[in-house]
Design a protein that fits this description.
By secondary structure, the chain is of the alpha/beta class. Helices cover 37% and strands 16% of the residues.
Length: 256
């Protein structure tokens, strides 16, 4: 089973004094693709104004330029700890047990715009590059789409895709019965469902944490759907190739 998460623009700083090693990341077949973007990002960092424009950075974010310049030699930490923001606050990796982290390392991927899909425990530096960044001479969709589609298509078992549309465009998941795209929705008073934006990320983080703590892989969509109610989630079959995680706006607002 693989759970495919989006990254976050914000990163936790610091880590261990062990520099980035592209060969040791999950899917080593992507090493050459990763190397091209790392070098391009470092080169662009020599021109701060150009980088801030390409990455759509504001004046208070100038420190991101230096982090990109030094990303090949700076400290690293596991991806599940490096990323911050709503998804990762809800996932709360710091509170996971060693056993739970080990399971996450085998079953959770984060789709980075810079490194492609990486394992939850892969060691990453702090960096800044998003799916909508415009890296000169290296359009991210063209750079990644076929390669990422290839490695995801080679996976076995259930694949649960929690990414945003921007990252799906950087490499689609395979189309097969055990490959599911998760949508976060709410039910309106007239019984219809609508997609949520504001509570989307928190719900995905909570759901991923529950899967990690459960610590068992599901082989089919049916097994996942059977497990969800007992774990406190309302999960329904959605459109073809999708499942809907139904949340109550009132409950989420109270918890937020």
């Amino acid at each position: 089973m693989l759970i495919l998460l989006p990254p976050s623009e914000t990163k936790r700083l610091g880590g261990i004094e062990l520099p980035l090693d592209l060969k040791n990341l999950t899917y080593p077949s992507l090493a050459s693709k990763r190397r091209v973007l790392v070098r391009a990002l470092q080169s662009l960092a020599k021109h701060p104004d150009a980088m801030m424009s390409a990455l759509k950075l504001g004046r208070t974010q100038s420190g991101e330029v230096e982090r990109n310049r030094l990303l090949a030699s700076s400290a690293t930490m596991p991806a599940i700890d490096r990323y911050t923001g709503v998804v990762y606050d809800a996932l709360d990796a710091a509170s996971l047990s060693a056993r739970e982290r080990d399971w996450a390392g085998r079953n959770v991927l984060v789709h980075s715009a810079l490194f492609g899909p990486v394992g939850a425990l892969d060691l990453l530096p702090a960096y800044r590059l998003s799916c909508d960044s415009r890296l000169p001479e290296h359009p991210l969709k063209k750079h990644w789409a076929d390669a990422v589609r290839g490695v995801l298509g080679g996976s076995d078992g259930l694949l649960l895709d929690l990414r945003s549309n921007g990252y799906v465009a950087l490499g689609a998941a395979p189309v097969r019965p055990d490959s599911l795209y998760l949508r976060v929705v709410t039910e309106t008073a007239d019984g219809r469902t609508r997609t949520l934006n504001h509570f989307n990320k928190k719900a995905k983080g909570n759901f991923t944490r529950a899967l990690i703590r459960h610590g068992q892989s599901f082989g089919t969509a049916g097994e996942l759907l059977d497990w969800a109610p007992g774990a406190g989630f309302e999960l329904r079959p959605g459109a073809d190739g999708e499942v809907d995680l139904v949340v109550s706006i009132q409950v989420e607002a109270t918890q937020g």
